[in-house]
Design a protein that fits this description.
This protein is α/β, with parallel strands linked by helices and 471 residues long. 41% of the residues lie in helices and 15% in strands. The radius of gyration is 23 Å and the shape is globular.
C-alpha cells in the first residue's frame, strides 16, 4: 500500500510495511547475502530453492504468480497449526489492544500462570514451568537446573542428538560439525541411543547430573527402543541423576501424543523442554517443565529469586499465543489428527518399499516421519548410487528433495548432514488430501529415479561435482 494511502487510524509517521516490501522485497536474497549469513542465499540458489514466497495460509505457501506450495517442513516444526491460524492471530491482536503493563519485573501477571496451569495439565507429575524464548533456552534451563539440583556437573546425551546451538546446548549436541571450533564446551559425554550398558558405566562414575534425550531424534528420525526410556529413567534415579526429555520438536502433539515420552508407560521425566509448536507460529517461546522439588531447590530463598531468568520470558504476546495454541489443540483435536493422519501417511509410504529398491525404510510416529534411502540391488542403479556415496553421503536424498519442490511444489528437507533420509514434519492440521498429494508426487520422483537416467541423475552429477569441489 503506498504511503499516501495509509489508513486514517494509523499513527502519524507509521511504518508502511506493505509499501516497504513492495519497494524492496525483490532484493531479499541480495540483502541477506550482504548483511546476514552469506552462505544461505548461495546454498538456496545452488539447489534451486531460491523461491519468492509472497504469502502463506495453513499448510501452504503461495508465490507471486499464485502457485500453491505444500509445506512438509512447518518451519522445522514451529507451524504445528499451519500459518496464520485465526484463533492465534486473534489472541495476539487482543493482547496488543489491551495495552497490558507487560514485563514490569515487579508484579505477577496472570497470563504466565494461566499458560503454565494449562500446559502442566497435559503433563501429570510435573509441577512448575520456566518460560524462555526458544528451544535452546529451554535446554539451557534444564541443564542449569539439573546441575544445581543434583550438585553434579556432567550431562549425558545421545549420539546424533540435537538440542540447540547456544554454548550449553551445543555441549550436548551429537553432531560434530556443529561443535567444531566452538570449544571448550561443558564436561558432557555421549552414549548410543538405547544403550543401557553405556549409561550404567557413566553413572558409576558418580558425577552425572542428568541424561537428556529426544524420545525421537530429529536427526534421522530414530526413536528410542521400546522400554529403553523407562529403564534409563530407573537407572538414573537409582544413581540420584535426572531424566530430561527434550520435546522441543516432538512435543505439543507432533507424534500423536501431547509429549512423545507419554507413549511409553511409566516414563516420568524430571524435566521436559518444549518450544516451537507452543508459539502458534507467531511469537518465540520456550518452556521448561519440571518437578516441584527441582524448582524449589533452584529458587530456594528470596536472595535467589532472579538466579535464572529471561528478559523477554513470559511476555504477554507469547503467553497469549501459547494459550490460544493449546485451545486450538483441544478444540480441533489436533493431537488426535496427528496420530490418525500420521498412521495413514506412514502406511502409504511404507507400502512403497516393495515397489522401489532405492527406498530402504519408512519410520517415525505421528507426523514425524523419516524416509530412508539405501543401496539398490540392480547394477544400473547401483553404479549411480555408488558414485553419489563416494562424493558425499546424503546426495541422493537431496536429489529427491529438489524435484519435489521444483516439479511438484512440495517443500521438504534432508534430515541431517551425511544422511540419506528425508524428514517430514508437516503442520499437524494436514488431511488425507495433503497425504495423497505428497505420495503421488513422491511416486513420480521415485519412478524417475529408478529409470537410472534423466534429469534427476543429471542433477546428481552436478551435486557430485560440487561436493568434490568443496573438499
Amino acid at each position: 500500500m503506498p504511503a499516501d494511502h495509509v489508513p486514517a487510524d494509523r499513527p502519524d509517521g507509521a511504518l508502511d510495511l506493505a509499501a516497504l516490501l513492495a519497494e524492496r522485497g525483490g532484493e531479499r536474497y541480495e540483502l541477506h547475502g550482504r548483511y546476514l549469513n552469506p552462505q544461505l542465499p548461495r546454498m538456496l540458489r545452488t539447489i534451486g530453492f531460491d523461491k519468492t514466497y509472497e504469502r502463506a495460509a495453513g499448510p501452504y505457501f503461495y508465490d507471486a504468480e499464485g502457485n500453491e506450495y505444500l509445506d512438509m517442513l512447518a518451519g522445522f516444526g514451529i507451524f504445528a497449526l499451519g500459518r496464520h491460524h485465526p484463533v492465534v492471530r486473534d489472541a495476539i491482536q487482543q493482547v496488543m489492544d489491551l495495552d497490558l503493563p507487560d514485563l514490569t519485573r515487579f508484579d505477577c501477571p496472570p497470563l504466565p500462570g494461566l499458560l503454565a496451569e494449562r500446559l502442566l495439565a497435559e503433563a501429570p507429575g510435573l509441577d512448575r514451568v520456566f518460560f524462555g524464548n526458544s528451544g535452546t533456552e529451554a535446554v539451557e534451563t534444564a541443564i542449569k537446573f539439573a546441575r544445581y539440583a543434583t550438585g553434579r556437573g556432567r550431562i549425558l546425551y545421545c549420539d546424533h542428538a540435537f538440542h540447540g546451538l547456544t554454548t550449553g546446548s551445543l555441549s550436548i549436541n551429537g553432531e560434530g560439525g556443529f561443535r567444531k571450533g566452538f570449544g571448550p564446551l561443558l564436561p558432557d559425554t555421549a552414549i548410543p541411543l538405547g544403550d543401557l550398558g553405556a549409561l550404567q558405566r557413566e553413572l558409576r562414575k558418580g558425577d552425572v547430573a542428568a541424561l537428556i534425550v529426544e524420545p525421537i531424534q530429529g536427526k534421522g528420525v530414530h526413536a528410542a527402543p521400546p522400554g529403553w526410556l523407562r529403564a534409563a529413567q530407573d537407572l538414573l534415579h537409582e544413581n540420584k541423576a535426572l531424566l530430561i526429555c527434550d520435546e522441543v520438536q516432538t512435543g505439543i502433539g507432533r507424534t500423536g501424543a501431547f509429549f512423545a515420552y507419554q507413549d511409553e508407560e511409566g516414563v516420568q521425566p524430571d524435566l521436559v523442554c518444549a518450544a516451537k509448536a507452543l508459539s502458534g507460529g507467531y511469537v518465540p517461546i520456550g518452556a521448561t517443565l519440571g518437578k516441584g522439588w527441582i524448582f524449589e531447590k533452584v529458587y530456594s530463598s528470596m536472595d535467589r529469586v532472579l538466579v535464572h531468568s529471561a528478559s523477554f520470558g513470559s511476555n504477554a504476546q507469547a503467553m497469549a499465543a501459547g494459550l490460544a495454541t493449546l485451545q486450538v489443540m483441544r478444540d480441533e483435536r489436533v493431537v488426535e489428527n496427528a496420530r490418525r493422519v500420521g498412521d495413514l501417511f506412514r502406511d502409504r509410504l511404507a507400502a512403497l518399499t516393495e515397489k522401489y529398491e532405492l527406498l530402504a525404510e519408512v519410520r517415525g510416529r505421528g507426523l514425524m516421519i523419516g524416509i530412508e534411502f539405501g543401496r539398490p540391488r540392480s547394477l544400473k542403479l547401483r553404479t549411480g548410487w555408488t558414485a553419489l556415496q563416494a562424493a558425499r553421503k546424503g546426495l541422493f536424498a537431496q536429489m529427491v528433495v529438489v524435484p519435489l519442490l521444483q516439479r511438484h511444489r512440495i517443500l521438504t528437507q534432508v534430515s541431517g548432514d551425511h544422511l540419506e533420509v528425508i524428514k517430514l514434519i508437516p503442520p499437524l492440521i494436514i488431511t488425507e488430501r495433503e497425504v495423497d498429494r505428497f505420495v503421488d508426487a513422491f511416486c513420480e520422483v521415485m519412478d524417475d529415479a529408478h529409470r537410472g537416467s534423466g534429469l534427476m541423475w543429471d542433477f546428481g552429477k552436478t551435486l557430485v561435482k560440487q561436493a568434490v569441489g568443496n573438499r
